[in-house]
Amino acid sequence: MLLEAVDLGIERGGRDLFSGLSFSLSAGDIVHLRGENGAGKTTLLRILAGLSRYGFEGHVSRETACLYLGHHSAVKGLLSPRENLRWHPSGEAFPDDTVIDEALTEVGLYGYEDVPAAQLSAGQQRRVDLARLYLSDKPLWLLDEPFTAIDVAGVARLQQRFLEHASRGGAVLLSSHQALDAEVKARVLEISGGGTP
């Protein structure tokens, strides 16, 4: 098991975002986290990634390192896509430009490697973030709204990448309001302020 959550709960503004939430992720799992806006999807992902360590009930056991991509872009506008991927605030570094350029090609950014990210569209900036999915060897991916600002073809490529990662023993937990293709065979985890579905 790569991750286990037991009886997770959190209250914000006098109301439960979720409570009694229990689930696990094992090698090969793809889990689609769904819920209304404000249901606590981002909060849950941040708890699971270890970015929110206090203010919640329950227990998280994570037996492996994770790659967390938040719903806001981590791209720095003054840096090029290549420079953004070379170093990351998490401390994960990819100094080999050849490998970085291959990842940028995978997300459709061939030819934009050295353009300042501030000159890229929102969708292109998001694809710089998503290029990490082609670089990281971390088994557990926690992805908050990865399809934001991504076109239909890009969404299809990402879903294929999820399948590749799972087939190699990785696991993916992603939040999205968008339905996943049937071939992904994702397990659905719905949060709605009431606990485990």
TrEMBL record:
Domain of life of the native organism: Bacteria
InterPro entries per the UniProt record, alphabetical: AAA+_ATPase, ABC_transporter-like_ATP-bd, ABC_transporter-like_CS, ABC_transptr_haem_export_CcmA, P-loop_NTPase
SMART domains: AAA
Keyword Secreted: no
GO BP field: cytochrome complex assembly
PROSITE patterns, per the entry: ABC_TRANSPORTER_1 (PS00211), ABC_TRANSPORTER_2 (PS50893)
Domain annotation ABC transporter: ranges: 3-197
One Pfam family per UniProt: ABC_tran
Its EC number(s): 3.6.3.41
Keyword Signal: no
Keywords assigned: ATP-binding, Cytochrome c-type biogenesis, Hydrolase, Membrane, Nucleotide-binding, Translocase, Transport
GO MF, one annotated term: ATP hydrolysis activity
Database matches in PANTHER family: ABC TRANSPORTER I FAMILY MEMBER 1 (PTHR43499:SF1)
Protein name: Heme ABC exporter, ATP-binding protein CcmA
